[in-house]
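Handout, section 4.2: multi-component inputs.
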Amino acid sequence: MNITIIDPTAVVITYLLTTLPLQQACAGCIAAKQKFALPTDAASRQAADSWPFPSRALRVQNAGGVPDIDTSRQVIDLTITAFGSSQADAMLVYRAVGTVLRTMTRVRVELPDAAALLYSLIMINAPTFDFEFLSDQVGIDTVTFTVRATIAECAIP
Amino acid sequence: MSCAEPYAQITGTSRIYLAPVRETPPAVNVSPVGNWVLLGETDGEQTVEFAGAPTYFRVNERTGPVKAIRPEETVTVSFTLVELTHENYARILHALSKVNTLSSPDRKELPFQRGFCYTEYALLMHGTADSPYGLFPSYNYFPRVISVSEPTVTRSKDGRASLACQFVVMIDYNAADGYELGYAVAQTN
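Output:
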C-alpha cells in the first residue's frame, strides 16, 4: 500500500497560518525558523521571504515527546516562540495562540502534497519571557511555551 | 499498520447539555438550542460506562459456559463540572427550580437538601467534529437520566472546587425498541 506519512510540524504551522487570531496577530509570520530580515530594504526582504524587524511572529520547532507506537497517530511536542517588539507585543501573539487552542476541534489541514488530520493541539506549559539575540547587537523579546500536537500519521482522503 | 480510518480515532471532549426529560434531540448537524442548556465547562475525562455482568450457564460435561444472559444493565455518564453557578449546582443536586433569587442585596440561594425524588432530564453529549466517519458532528443522546451524583466539593489554596457528576440512564418507555437507554448519532456526509 502506498501511504503518505504526514510531516507534523508542517501541519501545525499550516493550521496556525489559517487561523484568524494569528492572521491578525502576526500576519503570516509563522515558520519553523525565525526569518527576521537582515536585508534592510523592503525589496530585499521580499526577495528573501523574510520578516520585518521587529514584528510579531511565531516560530514552531519540534521538541520531542513520547511517540504513539501502537496506533497510527503522531504525538509530538512543539516549542513555540512568540516574537514581538516588546514583552507585551510578544504576549499578544501568545494570547492569539491561546485563543486558537481554546476553540479548536479536530480539523483537516491542507498541505501541498496531501491532506492531514490534526486531532488536537494543547498547551502543556506556561509562557516564559526571554530575549533572543539575532546578531551581536540586535535582539528581540520572546515568549516561549510548549504545545502538544496529535496528528493522524498518514494522509487522509 | 493500516492508516485507513484516521477519523475513527475520536479525540477531545464533548459539550454536555441538559433538557427536560424526553426532550427531542437536535438534528445531528445542528447545534443544540431551545430547551437544551449547555451545562458548563468540565475538566478531565468524560465517560459513558456500560455495565451489566453476565450470568453464565454451565453443564457438567463442558468446561466452559454454554449460554449467557444479561439479567440487568446500567448506563452511566460521568464527568466533572467546574462551572459552579448555583443554576448548574442545582441541576446536579436536585433541580433548577430550587434556586431562589432574592433581593436586598441581590442574591441567589441554593438549598442543599435533595429530598426523596430525583429530577429527570434528557442529556446530550455533543461534539462538533466527533464523527468517526469524517469531520462531522456526533452526539450521544440519553432521553431519561437522573443525577445520582454525590460530589465532595473541595476548596483549597491552590485548587479549584468542582462537582463530580454522575448520571444514570433510566429506561424510556416511549422510545423505540433498543433505544430505551439512549443512542449515538454520527453524521456520515
